[in-house]
């Protein structure tokens, strides 16, 4: 490559109101391979900087209209990548300090030595290259640190998500183990308790047939009522532990919800509870046992009605979400205490002195049978919302 074709060593703007200085300095720098621009005033110099963006400006300190110090401050304010060497005929220490504070990279006294001028320019341009490189490295460092921080936040979020998923999976395993244990227990209890229970009921019936005293007949009736109650508890225990006989058919869940709500009309009227139906869409029928699906919502409605005071609101929503049919049952009760939430699906767990604690265990067993999910979406002093999700292609 010839000297003419060589890349310029840098772009330098010379700003001086003396044309002879511009011409002489321009010749010196062009001979050294620099691309040179000239301006006879500070204002013209600023316009040239805006247009050409030189790496370096040689700026005269004493100029009419806008002096060199004012121009220097303006250059540093507007063009931080442009470095400035000041020309000055006054060599006082105060001026030097003032120029350096204003942002000058160096200053040269007039008249100057040609070699000294070139060396100063090379030194400042070298310094500029280093400082710009450092600035770029710092910017890249900040970008990388920000990127690392984003990665860390994303990693923490993913770890949290996986931890929560693992906790949920572990909780489901524990629940399954509890239901399995309950199955072994209930099968044995049902057999061992129902046999003597049937005998008790039979003998009590025989006693009743030989009584003619109304008061004693009343006692016998109470005994039979308690026998039936024990038998019902055993039935619920078996329902919670294992699937009884079932019959699969096409089930419209919206109709099951309406039918189940109608069955609770007396209790709802007695407590003046308002029912809000929010059937946003009517999903297609699912293959299921209608009695099992009804049992899910019977237990949920019963719990909601029980915890609400008079003039509460029971909201039942139904919608299709992707491949799931979702039913939400929301009440305006006092909410479930946070410490009780992990145990609400446990067999025999209840805060109701008259309850068996098997209702939600039955619900969980049925929902899991259909590969669905049930969870408490919200529970606070304003009320509780249960969400039941059943696959539209629910397995038998």
UniProtKB/TrEMBL annotation:
Coiled coil residues, start to end: 127-179
Enzyme Commission (EC) number: 2.7.13.3
All residue ranges annotated as the Histidine kinase domain in the record: 188-394
InterPro entries: CheY-like_superfamily, HATPase_C_sf, HATPase_dom, His_kinase_dom, HisK_dim/P_dom, HisK_dim/P_sf, Sig_transdc_His_kin-like_C, Sig_transdc_resp-reg_receiver
Annotated CDD domains: HisKA, REC
Segments forming domain Response regulatory: 11-125
SUPFAM superfamilies found in the cross-reference section: ATPase domain of HSP90 chaperone/DNA topoisomerase II/histidine kinase (SSF55874), CheY-like (SSF52172), Homodimeric domain of signal transducing histidine kinase (SSF47384)
Catalytic activity, as annotated: ATP + protein L-histidine = ADP + protein N-phospho-L-histidine
Taxonomic superkingdom: Bacteria
Keywords, alphabetical: Coiled coil, Kinase, Phosphoprotein, Transferase
Positions of modified residues (4-aspartylphosphate): 60
GO molecular function, one term: phosphorelay sensor kinase activity
PANTHER family, per the entry: HYBRID SIGNAL TRANSDUCTION HISTIDINE KINASE C, TWO-COMPONENT HISTIDINE KINASE
Protein name, entry field: histidine kinase
């Amino acid at each position: 490559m010839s000297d003419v074709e060589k890349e310029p060593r840098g772009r330098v703007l010379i700003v001086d109101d003396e044309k002879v200085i511009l011409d002489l300095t321009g010749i010196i720098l062009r001979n050294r391979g620099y691309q040179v621009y000239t301006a006879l005033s500070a204002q013209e110099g600023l316009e040239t900087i805006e247009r050409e963006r030189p790496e370096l400006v040689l700026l005269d300190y004493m100029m009419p209209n806008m002096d060199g110090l004012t121009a220097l401050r303006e250059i540093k304010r507007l063009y931080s990548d442009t470095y400035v060497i000041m020309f000055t005929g006054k060599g006082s220490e105060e001026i030097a300090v003032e120029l350096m504070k204003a942002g000058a990279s160096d200053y040269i006294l007039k008249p100057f030595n040609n070699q000294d001028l070139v060396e100063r320019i090379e030194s400042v341009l070298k310094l500029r290259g280093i400082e710009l490189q450092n600035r770029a490295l710092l910017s890249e460092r900040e970008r990388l640190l920000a990127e690392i921080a984003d990665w860390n936040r994303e990693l923490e979020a993913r770890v949290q998500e996986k931890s929560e998923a693992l906790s949920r999976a572990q909780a489901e395993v524990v629940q399954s183990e509890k239901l399995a244990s309950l199955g072994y227990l209930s099968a044995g209890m049902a057999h061992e308790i129902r046999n003597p229970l049937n005998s008790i009921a039979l003998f009590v019936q025989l006693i009743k047939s030989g009584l003619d005293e109304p008061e004693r007949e009343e006692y016998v009736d109470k005994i039979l009522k308690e026998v039936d109650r024990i038998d019902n508890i055993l039935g619920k225990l078996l329902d919670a532990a294992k699937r009884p006989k079932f019959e699969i058919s096409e089930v419209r869940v919206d109709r099951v919800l309406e039918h189940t709500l109608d069955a609770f009309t007396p209790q709802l009227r007695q407590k003046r509870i308002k029912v809000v139906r929010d059937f946003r869409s009517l999903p297609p029928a699912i293959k299921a046992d209608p009695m099992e699906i009804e049992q899910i919502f019977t237990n949920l409605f019963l719990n909601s009605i029980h915890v609400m005071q008079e003039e509460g609101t029971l909201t039942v929503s139904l919608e299709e979400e992707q491949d799931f049919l979702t039913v939400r049952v929301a009440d305006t009760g006092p909410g479930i205490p946070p410490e009780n939430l992990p145990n609400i699906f446990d067999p025999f767990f209840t805060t109701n002195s008259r309850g068996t604690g098997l209702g939600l265990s039955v619900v969980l067993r049925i929902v899991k049978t259909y590969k669905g999910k049930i969870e408490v979406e919200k529970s606070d002093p304003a009320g509780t919302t249960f969400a039941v999700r059943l696959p539209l292609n629910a397995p038998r």
